[in-house]
Structures are given as C-alpha cells and as structure tokens.
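== Protein entry: sequence and backbone fold ==
=== Local backbone shapes as whole numbers ===
==== Amino acids and backbone structure tokens ====
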Amino acid sequence: MNAKTFSYGILRALGIIVGVFLLLYFLYIIQSVLVYIAIAGVISLIGRPIVIFLRSRLKVPNLAAVFIVLLFVLAVFIGIILVFVPIVIEQSHHLGQIDVEAFKSDINLMNEQINDYLGVEDINLMESLKQSELVQSFDVNLIPKFLNSVFGILGATLIAVFAIMFISFFLLKDSKLMLNSILVFANKGEEDKFQRVFNKIKILLSRYFVGLTLQVFVLFILYFLLLSIFEINNPLAIAFICAFLNLVPYLGPIFAGILMALFVISSNLGADFQVVILPKLIFVMMGYSIAQLIDNLISQPMIFGASVRSHPLEIFLIILIAGLMFGIIGMVVAVPFYTALKVVAKETLSEYKIVKRLTRDL
C-alpha cells in the first residue's frame, strides 16, 4: 500500500464521518418536520382502511373519501379543544374567585381527618408545601413568561396541525407515494423485495394503530361512565387524559390511576374524608381496576395478537429494553419499530434459525 492510497483511505474515512455528522445535524434541525411526517404516517395508516371501505363498499370517489377521513380527524381534534378550553376557562375563573383562607381551611381539615383515620402523628400539609423547593423558588416573573410560552405553543400547534393535515392528504390520496419514495433507496433488481417488505409493514402497522385507537376509545368510554356515576367534575376531559396515558405501556396506566385518584380527591375537597372522600376513592379505584382488567385481558391481546403477531412476553421484553434505552418515547415506539424490524429480518435474514423462530407467524 503506497502513501497515496493510504492518504486517500484516510480522507475517505474522514469524509464519511463528517458526512454522517452533517446528516445527523440536519435531521436534528428538521426534527419537527420528521415528527409531522411520522404523525401524518400514523393518520394515513389508521385512515387508509376507512378510505378503502368508502371507495369499495360505498362507491365514494377516492378524493372525496380522503376528504371525509381528514374532516373526521380534524373534527376529533377540534372536539378535544372544545372539551378542554371551556374547562380551562372555568378553572381560571374559579381560581380568580377562590377564597384562599377557605382553601387552607379545607386542606387542613382534610389533613386532620387523614391523620385521625390513619392514626399517625400530625403532618401539616400546608407547612410542608410552604417549605417545598417549588414554592420557595417561585418567581412572579414566571407568569408573563408562561403566558408567552402558551401563545408560542398555540402558534406552533396551528402550524403543526396544518402541516400534518397537508402531508396526510397526499399520503391518503396516493397510497404509493411513500412506497415510491422508499424505492429510491433500493438497488436495481431489489425493488420487488422492498415492495413486499413495505406492504407487509404497512398492513401490520395499520392494524396495530387501528387497534390502539379502539383501545383508547374503549378505555375512554369506561372511564367516562365510571367518573359520571360517581359525579366527578369534568369527567369527559379526565377520561380522555387517562385513556390517552394508556398509550405508554405499563407506566401509563399507573400514572392514569394516580391522576384519577387526585381528581377524585380534588372534586370532593372540603367533604368528610372518612365518610365521603375515602369510600368514593375506593369505589372509583375499583372501577378503574376493572377497566384495566378488561383492557389487559381483552383489548391488548387482540391488538398484539392480531396486528403485530408477537408473543406477549416478546412484546414485554422489547418494551422494557426500549424503555431502559430511550425512556418513555422508546416505550411508545417500541412495538411498531420492532414489528417493522421483524418484517425486514424475515426478508433479508431468513436463513438464520432465530429469525425463522421470531418471524414464523408473519
């Protein structure tokens, strides 16, 4: 090996490293656009079966079917806003008229009742709150900063909604648009393999996301009925938040349960703890547990079994590993990413025994 060849190899390696770093930096800069494309892709995977149904069964033109699906998605988004905005305005109005001394009295009364019921030494919640780092470090100047951030988030949300709907329109209108984009990276003669992999992934992920949507909807109905029966304030919003949290595997239901318990307590603040708050809290948590059993024993097995075709233990380990490596986001995307990886492995590494074993049901 002469000096010229050696120098060329070093320069080529350095060029590849610099190119990779520039690519990663570029992807970091446009991460919001990548998120828009990912969300639009999920919407297209969920909406595609509806478009096909409207087009094949009801003889609706393709363009009209796409508009119907997008209008439905937009209606759901607007519906969520219409549910939450009045609640925020109402709570802001209540906060403006709140009697601070009465609120302190209610907190102290509930604190005394809890201490008497549990038979523990007096624990002053108000003093603990005053001594907390959050209260001591509170700065009044944070309020205008918070308002500015709210308006900034509102503007970014409007841009995001427009971008996602625009991308979703073309993905739903032309089902081969994403396929043609992917085929650009295929070597000559491997287009058929790429197309098989893409179609298989699209079918499996479409079933998975449709299943997740049904799962959230079922939990939303169960939570809403539960909260309405026990007359908890704002049952629609609370049910939606708790159902949405279940998208985070394993940890989501725990956070949702804690949140629901806090809402039950806040809705009955000032009432007798032993007579009103504790029994209602126990019954709501029992109902919540029943809803989770229905989800764990019926909804989730149907989703994971019929859509991604993976063993529950296999899914659990993948979610656990992804959570340890990438946190909450990793847990959310673990199943669809693993499903896509299995399909690719079956097409490219099918000669290995472990790949055959893991992909035997695909």
